[in-house]
Write a structure and sequence with these properties.
- This protein is α/β, with parallel strands linked by helices.
- It has one domain: 3-Layer(aba) Sandwich (Undecaprenyl pyrophosphate synthetase).
- A 6-stranded parallel β-sheet has the order 3-4-2-1-5-6, with helices on both faces.
- Helix 4 links the parallel strand 3 and strand 4.
- Helix 3 packs parallel to helix 4.
- The chain binds 3-methylbut-3-enyl trihydrogen diphosphate (IPE) (2 copies) and magnesium ion.
- The site of one 3-methylbut-3-enyl trihydrogen diphosphate has 10 residues, from helix 1.
- One 3-methylbut-3-enyl trihydrogen diphosphate (IPE) binds next to helix 1.
Length: 248
């Protein structure tokens, strides 16, 4: 197991959980079997992140573009999500984890949304870790809805256009108040963002692995964090400046 510097852990890890379908296809099974396998990885990664004391974990579970998949797969994913939320409530309570959802809530089927809202409500005061589930989430959509809200505030006279800065935009994103991801992981071998946290990832360290999500477990997460800890984050400065300032 890689040795980690516990004083230099990422504050926020975001994961594009990709490769469930291929994992199942490799085994000659229907894609949903891969999604089920993926739930076990979710449980292990949430547990590990919590144990490490990392404050925020954001998991990309369903994109705005994933609605284009065959209806049966979408239905199965929504069903799986509902079961997951129902079964995880007690674990989240035990581990002091607070659930939040990022995305277009109104597109989530009512019976799933009800459970989701219940879990969010019941875990709201937990302070150990924030687990963000990105559901019907798209980075572009998130920016558009933020711009719409700000435009409304301008029309109402609550804010002037000149006062719109990065902080104002951030306050209107789903991730308002949270630190940007320091480390973004994508499993499944693709090296793209697929519309995930477009604004927030501007300085995230990216980590791509060929491991398919249902195979991605504790040790793989530790490897990704260890790799992150070897990088120098310069934020536009020179290497020497970065060494002196120790920006996160
Ligand atoms: C990720 O796995 C899960 C979702 C997008 C819901 P995929 O279902 O995309 O798996 P692959 O990429 O087809 O293997
Ligand atoms: C990204 O995976 C979305 C999630 C992991 C939820 P996709 O499988 O949808 O991404 P593309 O289509 O390969 O870019
Ligand atoms: Mg995929």
């Amino acid at each position: 197991m890689p040795k980690l510097d516990t004083a230099a852990l990422p504050r926020h890890i975001a994961i594009i959980m990709d490769g469930n379908g291929r994992w199942a296809e490799q085994r000659g099974k229907p894609r949903i079997v891969g999604h089920r396998g993926g739930v076990e990885s979710v449980q292990e990664i949430v547990r590990t992140t919590r144990e490490l004391g990392i404050g925020v974990l954001t998991l990309y579970a369903f994109s705005t573009e994933n609605w284009k998949r065959p209806p049966l797969e979408v239905q199965a994913l929504m069903g799986l999500l509902k079961t997951f939320l129902e079964s995880e409530l007690s674990t989240m309570a035990q581990n002091n984890v607070s659930l939040r959802c990022l995305g277009q809530k109104d597109r989530i089927p009512l019976e799933v949304r009800k459970v989701m809202e219940q879990v969010i409500k019941e875990t709201a005061s937990n302070s150990g870790m924030i687990l963000n589930l990105a559901l019907s989430y798209g980075g572009r959509d998130e920016i558009i809805q933020a711009v719409q809200q700000i435009a409304r505030e301008c029309v109402d006279g609550a804010i002037s256009p000149e006062a719109i800065d990065q902080a104002v935009l951030e306050q209107h994103l789903y991730t308002a108040g949270l630190p940007d991801p320091d480390l973004m992981i994508r499993t499944g071998g693709e090296t793209r963002l697929s519309n995930f946290l477009l604004w927030q990832a501007s300085y995230a360290e990216l980590y791509f692995t060929k491991i398919l999500w249902p195979d991605f477990r504790k040790n793989d997460l530790l490897h990704a964090i260890s790799d992150f800890q070897k990088r120098q984050r310069r934020f536009g400065k020179t290497g020497t400046q970065a060494e002196q300032t120790h920006d996160y």
